[in-house]
Amino acid sequence: MAYYNSNFNSLKENYLFIDIAKKIKQYQSENPDKTLIRMGIGDVTLPLAPVVVEALKKGADEMGQKETFKGYEDSGKGYMFLREAISKYYKSFGANVYPDEILISDGAKSDCGNIVDIFSEKNVVLVTDPAYPVYVDSNIMSGKKIIYASSNEENGFAAMPDKNVDCDIIYLCSPNNPTGSVYTKEQLEEWVNYARDMRAIIIFDAAYEAFIQDDSLPRSIYTIKGARECAIEICSLSKTAGFTGMRCGYTVIPNELCAYTVDFEGASVSSLWSRRQGSKFNGVAYPIQCAAAAVFTKEGIKQTRENIAYYMENARIMTETCDELGIKYTGGKNSPYIWLKCPNGMGSWEFFDFLLNEIQVVGTPGEGFGPNGKGWFRLTAFGSRENTMEAMSRLKNLLKK
Ligand code: PLP
């Protein structure tokens, strides 16, 4: 008899976006003449930058020539040309990360989920609430105890550590999905000091670092003193460079980072992760890695930042609308997400239905990201300018009534 992993019984029945898709499908079947504006799902819409496409094609051409064809990549960690490019990029904003500490993957979601494999089920895992769902789901699947740090209106949806609470693994995401909040240097210093006191490890999700406009805000946890001894950083090209359909990300594990046995015997986290990836992962396609390396060239940074500037202008239009309507929100300034308080005391799903039925705008109910999202709502800036303007104009008309 095959026994299934009964930890799956503890997962929430349905993934948030499946519930949303069902509601949309039903609405569309009942209202076939209405056009929806989707501001819910966090997928990019602009095409790849030309310099990236060129590198992708060149990589593909090389695969078609006997002299330059490539099979498995030897190290399994990703091509050195890409790891060196990423290391150089870190240096450009003052973080020391060496090429041998960077492992290329098919994206941040896989790494955020798979990293649980290297940690004992004894660990208590701290997740901020609300959070990107993979942190919670992957730890539930592997049977770990999860506790929550509250992100809420009072702390600007930037949860801070409580020295009286013990934990071993900490998930932080900044700029945050879903709340758009960004930790300041001082706030991250507090987390790093807390983690070091606990001998805990921070898993820092920097998937949205490229959206930071204010240079005083940290793009990487490694800009914080002491972080190399207590943090893993996971990043992605999905939002930075429109790679959601390309699949490429990277995880940074400093050589000095250790995890422990109950007898305080240290083990290199980097070796554990390499061992895990060596057993279960065979690398990212060569042309994709060529395209990824192009993102970090001078021209690549320029072109991909032009796309980000487009999204950030959408975000500006959205926050301006919220300001005009007196709606409270976080995000939108250094993040593509606008996290707003549902007006008139409405619940998240109530506001979702209200916007869908009245103005055919689709967002994401905050409570899908955790209990603290109740009464809050996420809009994304990844749509077209035209749709963003139209959605905001409909919202103004609706709420000014
Ligand atoms: N981390 C966060 C916070 C995200 O919001 C997302 C995607 O939405 C990811 C990671 C996943 O990125 P990838 O496409 O690289 O798997």
Q: What descriptors fit this protein?
A:
alpha/beta; binds pyridoxal-5'-phosphate; seven-stranded mixed beta sheet; 401 residues; 15 strands; four-stranded antiparallel beta sheet
Give an account of the 3D structure.
The protein is α/β, with parallel strands linked by helices. Helices cover 37% and strands 15% of the residues. The chain contains eleven helices and 15 strands. It has helices at residues 16-30, 50-63, 80-92, 108-114, 134-141, 185-198, 269-280, 286-295, 298-325, 348-359, 385-400; strands at residues 37-38, 102-105, 124-129, 145-150, 169-173, 201-205, 231-236, 249-252, 258-260, 266-268, 329-331, 337-341, 361-362, 364-365, 376-380. It has a seven-stranded mixed beta sheet with strand order 2-8-7-6-5-3-4, sandwiched between helices. α6 links the parallel β5 (169-173) and β6 (201-205). The protein is globular. It starts with 15 loop residues before the first helix and ends with a helix. The mean pLDDT is 96. Bound molecules: pyridoxal-5'-phosphate. Pyridoxal-5'-phosphate (PLP) binds next to α4. Pyridoxal-5'-phosphate binds at residues 42, 107-109, 112, 132, 173, 177, 205, 207, 236, 238, 244, 249.
Percentage beta strand: 15-25%
Ends apart, CA distance between termini? 62 Å
* Total count of strands: 15
Structural category is alpha/beta
Q: Ligands bound here?
A: pyridoxal-5'-phosphate
Order of helices and strands: HEHHEHEHEEHEEEEEHHHEEHEEEH
Rounded to the nearest angstrom, the radius of gyration is 21 Å
Low confidence ranges: none
Average of the residue pLDDT scores: 96
How would you write the strand order of the largest sheet? 2-8-7-6-5-3-4
Main beta-sheet annotation: 7 strands, mixed
Number of contiguous helices:
11
